[in-house]
Amino acid sequence: MNYFIEVIIPLSLPKTFTYRVSETEYNFIKKGMRIAVPFGKNKIYTALVVDLHQNAPTLYEAKEIHQILDEKPIVNEFQINLWFWIASYYMCNVGDVYRGALPSALLLESETIISQRKETFVNETELSDDEFLVYEALQHQSSLKVQNIIDILNKKTILPVIQRLINKNIISLEEEIQEEYKPKLTRYIRLHENYSAEENLITLLDSLKSDKRKNLVLQYFQLQAQEQKPISVKQLTETAQTSTAIVKVLVEKGVFEEYYIQEDRVNFDKNKLDNQLSLSEAQQKAFTEIENIFIEKDVCLLHGVTSSGKTEIYTKLIENCIAEGKQVLYLLPEIALTTQLVGRLTQHFGNKVAVFHSKYSNNERVEVWNQVLNTSEKAQVVIGARSALFLPFSNLGLIIVDEEHEPTFKQQDPAPRYHARDSAIVLANAHQSKVLLGSATPSIETYYNATSGKFGLVSLKERFGKVQMPEIELVDLKDSYFRKKMKGHFSLTLIEQIIEAFTNNEQVILFQNRRGFSPVLECMTCGHVPQCPQCDVSLTYHKYKNQLRCHYCGYNMAKPSNCHVCSSVDLETKGFGTEQIELELAELFPNKNIKRMDQDTTRGKYSFEKIIDGFKNREIDVLVGTQMLAKGLDFDNVSLVGIMNADNMLYHPDFRAFERSYQMMTQVSGRSGRSEKRGKVIIQTYNPLHNVIQQVTNNDYEGMYKEQLYERKIYYYPPFYRLIKLTLKHRDFDKLKEGSMWLYQVLQQNLSIPVLGPEEPAISRIRNEYIRTIMIKIPSEVPLQSTKKTIQKVLNSFDVVPQYRTIKVTVNVDFY
Ligand code: ADP
Ligand code: ZN
Ligand code: ZN
């Protein structure tokens, strides 16, 4: 008898592969187990079993496997089905999905690089012989490839050895970020217990001679009464407007006691109060509506304005779901947001909350994977960014997609270019689970689905605690520049408001969307702007490093002192990014603590959290940032949000530009005034009458939606048309031009729907590769599956034209 297994190899290959196994192996192996298999020349890959059968392959001789890596499946059928769905819907290879879905520690292969974790203490006597040999080799070499280990151990079955060393924390795999975050300790103050009784207090006040000291003690009492939570030294000195020296004196005199708390513990205490609070009337109503909708529909949109307390509603739903013993997946656009959320959810659900974080080490990710796999209580609620969708859930009851409108839910590169929200709906369907999409500014597609009855719709129009929506004021930049009412990029109106916020001890957020508008160096004599030698973009000027950098390929050079074209020394910086705003602000307010939050300042594992912590603790006065600021952060002391320039978002060459501008401005504005006092927003713009700016100002989502929907209809865009974007790349300009024309024409002949292009995109060369794009628009009434089949056929025939073989083509379905 012949026995075979069908496996997925973690490479971009369109098929599954057949390997030969013995009868014993056949009886042991189950779908979802990993098997090390030889593939190509001398390479080993971690393949995944998707089927067992007795049919020999017809086109090739089936090879034998190396070894079985698992004792039981680590992937279940829900996952395998989802992978195949994604591969088919997003027109990629199932190997791409497999590769993207598994934490890389579970995907060892010959080229994987292994190094020692220096911080782990190793007891050599507890290592097996094989483990010891690997460990010893790492004492002489800083890293090893899997292939080296095969040589060292002189056998093929080495993956289990590596896996065990990983489990013991002795080794780690490449591309791990190792950064320790020491939780910030905040200095707090409390009255010595001797003074807790009222009569003692009066004696105390009498005994204090200096007014300043008396005032401080009184302020302490007032704060204590207001806040009913620990009072930090910083908060006290700020409110009392005194220096820490006086606090010190009072500590020395034994009036106050100092103590330190970790910031997350403080939230814990505060949330303890929240925990007893119940939903507001409006929240309760929304919650009941969602529950009723879930009786009939599987997907519901919660359209709740910023700060309406959507998280509290999610929490209630999660509560019910875990009470039924089911798993919950909570998807966030950016994992950076988790700090705040994890605090809030752990408060309710204790250690049932796990976080799946792309910035976590491999080992940590494997740990969560295993917890979910074993339906451990520790991971009954999983919070994660889009890739958390791929965890081995077996019993999902609810998926929450928070901030569902965020484009980061769509993976761009590499394949699979899937949309996590849309894929979540497919996954939920398999589990017969419910999906709640939440947003203050839903995507046009989702709102269309919700108003056309495909999804349920629940609106929550008031902020929690009856806080008012922020007041939005427009500043006309044209007028302000003309009347010289500007300092750098700051209008006098904005400066006045910032001063007012400072006077009230309140914090400020300034938003500068850097995309498409970065500072460049321009020659004032000949107008030359230095370009990246490998990409079709201007280099961006970074003042701190005194460098010019390319944001696409990382190319950089020291800032030149004269123009490379005309040698003039008259060079000026044009345009502005967050960095320049930060610098201008520092000049305007030299005594204030200003921090910047953008891609450059948030690279490390906890760098984002550090900034957020600092801002939350009120150590930072102004936060300057990019769209990262627009993602659901909750601060209670921000009374002013400034949008530095609304126009550069509006004029992005993209059919979603107006929708995105509305979303971004509304979301950033929503960070203002989240407690009792009404917040203020200043939008600086050259187009105060622009419809989108007006819609933001009037909080008119419906107006924006109707207008955009109309545009989408007449210009053939989603939700009326599905977009498939093909991107072609090659170093040879002429070959690319010819090839893309060929592809365009053949598509055109084979499809009776709009095919547009081939177009040279705004940035038409990156890393020395030229780029062309072709856009296919599929009307919603045209069958999708057969259209994709035709497209795939054309792509396959393109692939076999000898002169075009080297042109790379990527397919982006539901292009975002
Ligand atoms: P959203 O996500 O809708 O912008 P949040 O869920 O962040 O709003 O809520 C805004 C603020 O209101 C948070 O600080 C939250 O703790 C508070 N809040 C919302 N609902 C409640 C509630 N039912 N009880 C106590 N506090 C609440
Ligand atoms: Zn010049
Ligand atoms: Zn470049």
From TrEMBL:
Residues 291-460 form the Helicase ATP-binding domain. Keywords: ATP-binding, DNA replication, DNA-binding, Helicase, Hydrolase, Isomerase, Metal-binding, Nucleotide-binding, Primosome, Zinc. It is an enzyme of class 5 (isomerase). Residues 536-712 form the Helicase C-terminal domain. It comes from the Bacteria. CDD domains: DEXHc_priA, SF2_C_priA. Binds 2 zinc ions per subunit. Belongs to the helicase family. PriA subfamily. This is Replication restart protein PriA. Initiates the restart of stalled replication forks, which reloads the replicative helicase on sites other than the origin of replication. Recognizes and binds to abandoned replication forks and remodels them to uncover a helicase loading site. Promotes assembly of the primosome at these replication forks. Component of the replication restart primosome. Zn(2+) 2 binds at C532, C535, C550, C553. It comes from Flavobacterium buctense. Zn(2+) 1 binds at C523, C526, C563, C566. InterPro entries: DEAD/DEAH_box_helicase_dom, Helicase_ATP-bd, Helicase_C-like, P-loop_NTPase, PriA, PriA_3primeBD, PriA_3primeBD_sf, PriA_C. It catalyses: ATP + H2O = ADP + phosphate + H(+); Couples ATP hydrolysis with the unwinding of duplex DNA by translocating in the 3'-5' direction. It holds the Pfam family Zn_ribbon_PriA. Its cofactor is Zn(2+). Its EC number is 5.6.2.4.
